[in-house]
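Changelog entry: the Triacylglycerol esterase/lipase EstA (Alpha/beta hydrolase family) record was regenerated in this release. Current contents:
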Amino acid sequence: MQKRRQVWLMLLVSVLLIMPYQTVGATGKIPDPQPMGQVSFDGAQMEALPAPGNSTTPGTWFIGATPANADLSKPPIVFVQGLHSRAQSWWEETNYHGVNDMYETAYNKGYRTAFVQLYDAPGGDAATPMDNGRLLAGMLEKIYNHFGQKVNIVAHSKGGPDSQAALIHYGAYRYVNKVVTLGSPHEGSHLADLAYSSWAGWLAALLGKQDPGTYSLQVGEMAKYRAQTDNHANARLNKYYTAAGTSWGPTFSALALGGAYLSQYGENDGLVNVWSTDLPYGTHLFTASDLDHDEIRIGRAVFSKIESVLRTATATSATEPKASQPSAAVNSADKQETFVRGGALPISKQLVQQVPVEPGVKEAIFTVRTKAADTQVTLVSPSGKVLKPVLKSKDQAFFRGATVQVIRVAKPEAGNWQVKLLSKQKDAYLLTTHFMGKATVELDLPALNKQSSAELKLKGLESVDLASLTGKIKVVDPQGQVKEMALNKTKKADATLTGAVSGSQAGVYNITVELSGKTKDGQPYARTLVKSVYIGK
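Regenerated structure tokens:
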């Protein structure tokens, strides 16, 4: 009997030794995706990497565990993340909503999965869609060969333009059936415009966040990208589906602050306006009022909304939802409700910035971004009331790593408010004041060539003394040089201000328009308008 037990024990040990070893995944339920290899920066195949799958090396691609209920009739899904993100974002913590269960959800639904590392993954500079697209194209070919069939792509945020570059410009369309983009800025984001404006340059440079990837998301830069991409012969060789959200995330979060800023341009998810998520040859699946830019990539929140698209290789009316329409674009006449200032902060010397607030503002949100976490911020009302920030947090978006301090004032007193800043070290700041309940001016910038005029049309200024209104333009050219010029007031009844915006070279020009004057009852009035445009050849 003892000898028989020993034989059975030896057999059991032998079986255990030859069984494949699997680690418990981030969710505690399924194994982590395993790296299958790398694609080098020039697209060549590199030597396979050993498990486990924690590499952030650009060009690494991961294969998820094969579900026990795997349905081979369903195309594998390749997940592509957004700006400054990495493959692990599909199964690790999100910024605001806990663990992303997208990988787990797809696994439980019987889908085979793959994940990719783009140039953004190590945490340094983000890359342009063209650069990421070239790298992604090489990985898509290897993933296609691994599965032996075409895949569907689910892309979040900038992963949408990155995926399009791979398919359209680098020929990877042959490895893909469909592409679903979640909150992707196909037309750019005005927050990227703000990051590259003349006022924000100090802080963005100090944070090291002025990189090619962020630069590429300016509205003007994406207009150039769309012209190159949408007219390409490969543009319609894959089926594209788009989705958007209109929630701004938790109160006082970076998304909430971004949403307030972007509300000038229409509905948004805290980082991207709904109109920017659309593609002229795509099918818009939904615009969800309960999803912000962080949550729209989470499995439990969105997979059921997109699965009917993912379960097949081709579009079929019987399985796919009826397309909806995204919000209409409003960037042809952008409503502006913001005052912006920024620059260097002196060491141990208080800087005071005045913020004019006119009567009738329902709420003013004063937001200060700095690099240092201990910069002192104080707000003083025209009557001398002192207010302190109600929240201090870290920006997770275009000014990632910046300390954000917020002061929110309901029905603010009219007059000049003072924002006082004191830093004990080398620092820079960006101050944005968002005026809720005020939509007073519209900026119309047509398509520009090397010599064009930007015409500023003022509407809804019944309370403003138009005779006192003045304006100037600051233009940041493609080389980062700043040029300032005055706006000329016309004698038209609508009090139009005009100014010539010209460039000696093709590229993106970031334009900041400053308006100042007084209301009819003598109170100060000011607005800042920021927008980028592409000036062609």
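Confidence is low (pLDDT under 50) at residues 1-28, 43-52, 328-335.
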